[in-house]
Design goal:
The protein is of the alpha/beta class. A six-stranded mixed sheet has the order 6-7-8-9-11-10, with helices on both faces. It has a five-stranded parallel sheet with strand order 2-1-3-4-5, with helices on one face. The protein is built from twelve helices and eleven strands. The protein has two domains: 6-196, inorganic pyrophosphatase (n-terminal core); 202-324, Diaminopimelate Epimerase, Chain A, domain 1. The structure holds guanosine-5'-monophosphate and manganese (II) ion. Residues 25, 88-89, 92, 272, 290-293, 296-300 line the site of guanosine-5'-monophosphate.
Length: 325
């Protein structure tokens, strides 16, 4: 019987040289899935390049294989095939990848419902809590070895994308696979302490600035946090310090959607949305040309801070109160 992985397994058997890529602004699932797959292919004797346009966030640099990540394809020889993991849109793989001509067959492995099927082969499993879960299934079916290093990466992918097994995406399958990864060598406390208890001091200074911008709209159902480039400059920090801040907005009592507005250029903002109630924020993000999951989504938008806030709040209000009032 043909499984969803048949084509990918065929490529793995046939090819010798593979590129593995994920999205810009990479987080735990992007890096964990990327390195989990790359290390497993390497272990099977393949020639593998893991590639990310952006740096691996500091807190994830403990991940085995993170030192192997390449950030330029300019000199790269052609590949037999490329695996894209955790990425819903081709453009989110970055400009460097878009300009590269030697990708070979493109295999798109993802769990975003909003995935636009940009691959030659598309393995899209929206029920998966993380792309790491799909990589786990692929490795098992392909008979590739899950070493402790691979297990650590895939565990981090699932652990971070489920919000430490708090989100509704924490299905029995997610727990089962995480359990198996622990059996295969992932160390939950070592990983948790690296990911959640190892932040640079400047992240807390930045958080303190960010929290002072907290405001609520729509009778307390929407909470907003703002990060300006000035704030980042003040702490001499980069954008990856901001990962997770939006959860503070969502955590406010009565809030249905938490919003983080991060200034990323002159009159340009990266918006992160997190839903607590039934609002599907991926639909709101799509209206602005972005995407994501029902509970976590994002997009980029141009305008002054006030204009951007107004537009975003307006769409969110409609999504939250739509038809009800
Ligand atoms: P974050 O807010 O952490 O950047 O992203 C939350 C979720 O939304 C992730 O699943 C991410 O892949 C998706 N996402 C964030 N920004 C964008 C965007 O600009 N376009 C698309 N398509 N998805 C995004
Ligand atoms: Mn993911």
């Amino acid at each position: 019987m043909k499984s969803i992985f048949s084509d990918a397994i065929e490529e793995i058997k046939r090819g010798k040289r593979f590129l593995v890529v994920s999205h810009v602004n990479p987080e735990g699932d992007a890096v964990g899935s990327l390195l989990g797959l790359a290390l497993a292919l390497k272990e099977a004797g393949k020639d593998v390049v893991p590639y990310l346009e952006d740096p691996v966030p500091e807190v994830l640099r403990f991940l085995p294989g993170s030192e192997l990540v390449s950030h330029s394809l300019e000199e790269a020889e052609p590949f037999d095939a490329t695996f894209a993991v955790d990425c819903g849109q081709y453009e989110r793989l970055g400009k460097g990848f878009a300009q590269f001509r030697g990708q070979g067959r493109l295999i798109n492995i993802d769990h975003h419902k909003t995935n636009d099927h940009f691959g030659d082969v598309n393995i899209i499993v929206p029920e998966a809590s993380a792309a790491g879960e799909i990589v786990f299934d692929l490795l098992k079916e392909a008979g590739l070895k899950i070493t402790p290093e691979v297990a650590t990466n895939l565990y981090v992918a699932i652990h971070t994308d489920t919000g430490s097994f708090r989100y509704s995406s924490s299905t029995p399958d997610a727990f089962r696979k995480a359990g198996e990864l622990v059996r295969l060598g992932a160390d939950p406390w070592k990983i948790a302490s690296k990911v959640y208890e190892n932040y640079p001091l400047k992240r807390f200074r930045l958080l303190s600035d960010a929290l002072s911008t907290l405001e609520v709209k729509d009778e307390g159902k929407i909470a907003l946090l703002t990060i300006t480039q000035d704030m980042l400059r003040r702490v001499n920090g980069s954008k990856d310090l901001v990962d997770g801040f939006v959860n503070y907005a969502r955590a406010v009592e009565g809030v249905e959607v938490g919003v983080l507005l991060r200034e990323c250029g002159q009159d340009e903002y990266k918006i992160s949305l997190r839903a607590k109630g039934d609002v599907d924020v991926s639909k709101v993000a799509e209206k602005f040309g972005g995407g994501g999951h029902p509970h976590a989504a994002g997009f980029n938008i141009k305008g002054t801070l006030e204009e951007v806030k107004e537009k975003v709040v307006e769409e969110l209000k409609e999504a939250i109160d739509g038809g009800a009032g």
